[in-house]
Amino acid sequence: MNFDFIDIALLLIIAGIVWVYIYIRYREERKKKEESLIPNLQSYREKLIREKEYFSERAKKFKEKIEKYEEKLKCIKSSIHKYKWSEDEKKLLKALKGTEFEWTFSFLFKILGFNIYEPPIYKDKNIDFIVEIRENQKICIDFIDRTVAKKIDEKYLDNLAQGAGKYNCSGMWIITNSFLDEKFKNSLYTKGIKVFDYRDIVKFFPSIRVVEDYYEIQTKLHNYQLLHKETVDEVIRRKTWINEVEKKLEEAIKKQMVER
């Protein structure tokens, strides 16, 4: 198919008209975008400011909750002496076994204000935890529930004594929810081992209800601390974004003034 000069001219004219139309539309859209840039930035800034205020208010409320639960923990610590053993709590004490028994009383030592940690090797020399009574004074502790108390023999005790020496403990405690014979307890005492059996726990320790109360409040406190941090982070993000938008807004206003 052959094209003559007129056909080619017509195609060029049509192409030129289309290009001009596209260019005009482009300029119009660009102008609209430039005209709407400042209002859009202002609107976005106002939105970010509202969000920042919202998260700031939430952070304030979470902070109040944190202070509230911190105060509750202080109240528990200051009133530990009021946690007397009820009959139900005594039954619960007898029923504690294994890791549950260990966790309950290691947590109780923490509530009482002592630093407590596990030996580097799990249950090394039968030692479950090491308690810092005061600076440079440590006590090695073995928690023995009532189901395994009968397994205490000379070999077991020798292991404990070795552990106490290994970890430079000035004393060795056995804490059990079993009933031990007083004569047997006295014989252990001559070996440098202090024993707290069921009767001693009830006599010298606060009720394990303090652990339940403290743990419940501590968990709530921890949750509010996390929420507070996340919310404060949201406030910080909004502040950063607001600064970025304000810079862009300032640049857009300057550009508009120059073009005018």
Task: Tell me about this structure.
- This protein is an alpha/beta fold and 260 residues long.
- The protein folds into two domains: 5-75 and 220-259; 84-205, Trna Endonuclease, Chain: A, domain 1 (3-Layer(aba) Sandwich).
- Helices cover 68% and strands 10% of the residues.
- A five-stranded mixed β-sheet has the order 1-2-3-4-5.
- Helix 1 (5-78) runs antiparallel to helix 7 (209-259).
- The longest helix has 74 residues, at 5-78.
- The two termini are 53 Å apart.
Overall mean pLDDT stands at 87
Radius of gyration, in angstroms, nearest whole number: 37 Å
Please count the beta strands (DSSP E, at least 2 residues each). 5
Count of the separate structural domains: 2
Instruction: Please give the CATH class of the largest domain.
Output: Alpha Beta
| CATH topological fold name of the largest domain | Trna Endonuclease, Chain: A, domain 1
Distance between the termini: 53 Å
Low-confidence stretches: none
Structural class: alpha/beta
The strand line-up of the biggest sheet is 1-2-3-4-5
Largest sheet: 5 strands, mixed
Shape type: elongated
